[in-house]
Amino acid sequence: MLIVNDISKKVKDHDILKKTSFNLNKGVVGLLGPNGAGKTTLLRILSTYFEPTTGTISLGNLNWDKNKEEIRKHIGYMPQHIGLFPHLKIIEYLQYIGILRGMALEQIKELALKTLIEVNLEDKANIKIKNLSGGMKQRVGIAQAIMHNPQLLIVDEPTAGLDPEERIRFRNLLKRIAQERIVLFSTHITEDIVMTCDEVLLMNKGTVMKYSHVQDVVSIANQLVWTVTVDSTAYNSMLMKKEFFISNIMDEPSSNQITLRIIHNEQPHPLAVQVHPTLEEGYMVWLQKN
């Protein structure tokens, strides 16, 4: 279990990360928040790149305020922009990473090949990285992060820029990897959270709040989401009022009708009916409150 107790990060007089505490168990935990929320700061503290201003972090018997090199042996980190070496073969790159990590030389190749099997790249071991698709490069990024079998894997925006098929493959890979470890999955894509995560951390303005189930975030918008179908005149009139938040617009050109999903605490139109919210809508309501 990862135990985070009262950690914060202050730079000069600015609270980048406000005091926060949470526990994480094995499985995929989503980290969701807007730009500037403090997500990258939190990830860098957990990966030992930043020191927290206050608080403690532990993983089993390991404490972050002790030997950093020992801690790093149990952490895998895949940043949003990972530095791959395009002219190296995949197996060469992983062997190089193994050497940098100080792994036993006689074990590096064996572990690299084993890891390639885990990320479904065993048949691409001798392909140069420059010849890989975006999805395959992301899998190489995961491979370098798990080759030393970490207890905690941190991935930052790993599905950004992937096509839908590659995103699905990558999400399935994370789910499989998370059977044996904690995976903290930072993303802007709410669909990835719904399809992948067991628990969710929401962040905004340096504040972190943990939800034990994705459905708990969805329920934040219960009885606040409405749908209504109107003509273009009524739609334009509703836009002018700016009294509520429109979360989705579906245009029907053939009938001059527009179907809206609206977040509002009162019925926004006489014909509007309440509907079950999505994770995105729960998240938007949470942002408005926090």
UniProtKB/TrEMBL annotation:
Q: Where is the ABC transporter domain?
A: 2-230
Record-linked SMART domains? AAA
Recorded GO molecular functions are: ATP binding; ATP hydrolysis activity
UniProt-listed Pfam families:
ABC_tran (PF00005)
Record's superkingdom?
Bacteria
Instruction: Please provide the record's keywords in A-Z order.
Output: ATP-binding, Nucleotide-binding, Transport
Q: Give the family from UniProt.
A: Belongs to the ABC transporter superfamily.
Report what the protein is called.
ABC transporter domain-containing protein
